[in-house]
Amino acid sequence: MASNKSTLLILFFSISITIQFPTKTSSTNPDHQQSDSDCTNRWIHIRRLPPVFNLDLLSNCSGYPLFYDFCPYLANHGLGQKTHNLSHSWYRTDPLMLELIFHRRMLEYPCLTADPQAADAIYVPYYAGIDALRYLYGPDYNSSSEQGLNLFEFLTTDSPESWNRKMGHDHFMVLARPAWDFSQPLGNNPLLWGTSLLELPQFYNVTALTVEARAWPWQEHAVPYPTSFHPPNLSLLESWVQRVRRSRRTTLMMFAGGGGVGRNPTIRRSIRNECENNTMNKNVTNVNNVGMYGSGVGGFSKHVTL
Ligand SMILES: *[C@@H]1O[C@H](CO)[C@@H](O)[C@H](O)[C@H]1NC(C)=O
Ligand SMILES: *[C@@H]1O[C@H](CO)[C@@H](O)[C@H](O)[C@H]1NC(C)=O
Ligand SMILES: *[C@@H]1O[C@H](CO)[C@@H](O)[C@H](O)[C@H]1NC(C)=O
Ligand SMILES: *[C@@H]1O[C@H](CO)[C@@H](O)[C@H](O)[C@H]1NC(C)=O
Ligand SMILES: *[C@@H]1O[C@H](CO)[C@@H](O)[C@H](O)[C@H]1NC(C)=O
Ligand SMILES: *[C@@H]1O[C@H](CO)[C@@H](O)[C@H](O)[C@H]1NC(C)=O
Ligand SMILES: *[C@@H]1O[C@H](CO)[C@@H](O)[C@H](O)[C@H]1NC(C)=O
User: Fold this and answer.
1) Which one in 1, 116, 226, 248 has a CA-CA gap of 20 to 30 Å to 82?
2) Which contiguous run of DSSP H or E holds residue 220?
């Protein structure tokens, strides 16, 4: 949601990214009007991190040899470029930008406090999924157990009272990749997939909002992948809902893909197997190279004429 309070212009290489940080909370947003009045138990403090943990990481958006160039997706505070010039709500959004999108939205949260002692929760604006790229696809592959160690060092030495108040139990961060990408057991030899961010005892107390949580760790909470639909206000959302309700919809499309390549049976793989079986006689299409996460599995989309 655009707000023109202050502008921080960052120039990296040949690209320029404009990120607008509101200096105080906004009450012009209709989503917020109701909640402004009562912040009881909802105060959040944002930990101030050196840019090496967030904004600096965006500078290498075209620099990962085995990963796609995600520079175009940084536009519009991580929403990506508009699908066309007249669009108000539709953007080419890359889910990997969730950390940036969330950070930007948090700065508009109506119950922010500058005092960590007054906060009910403490947000750590670390772009973990983007930082993970250098371990997953870059030169630091062999140091994947080290992701997060510098951050922990910072969190516990810079204003240690924030951490020490609840030993990190009130801290939370957002991961724009599945938890599996951060849970390689420490000491794996040979190294397999992932960093060990979620395996480090240092982060045991920290809550992680992730696009795909594992079933058992209480620290992980699943949040939806960002979509490409970002209406700037409620009336545009409502008018879209009306339009969809009114329109004649004759085709149902579903997509199942990615992941589930291990030895044990999984729901994803069962769906894919069933689709594979049906490819011949029904309107099921095998779509390859759609995965953003390098699983290399591709997926199936199914069109049903109603
Ligand atoms: C960006 O990439 C360059 C070259 O690969 C590397 O030296 C630098 O440390 C990277 N910067 C960040 C913030 O990852
Ligand atoms: C969209 O707007 C930009 C800037 O005004 C212009 O350069 C570009 O040609 C437009 N694109 C289309 C598809 O109209
Ligand atoms: C990681 O270590 C292995 C084995 O020592 C080596 O073959 C490989 O080149 C290293 N990878 C990177 C990215 O340094
Ligand atoms: C996590 O919390 C426990 C108490 O619940 C505490 O003993 C431990 O030191 C904390 N871990 C860190 C890394 O602060
Ligand atoms: C919603 O956003 C659109 C596009 O920016 C704007 O034209 C419209 O006036 C806005 N409506 C309200 C009620 O703010
Ligand atoms: C695929 O089709 C074969 C033959 O009809 C059947 O035996 C098998 O169970 C099917 N597999 C799945 C996953 O539906
Ligand atoms: C598949 O698509 C074609 C053309 O859209 C349609 O005529 C046919 O009925 C569809 N078949 C099924 C099983 O949905």
Assistant:
1) 248
2) strand 220-222
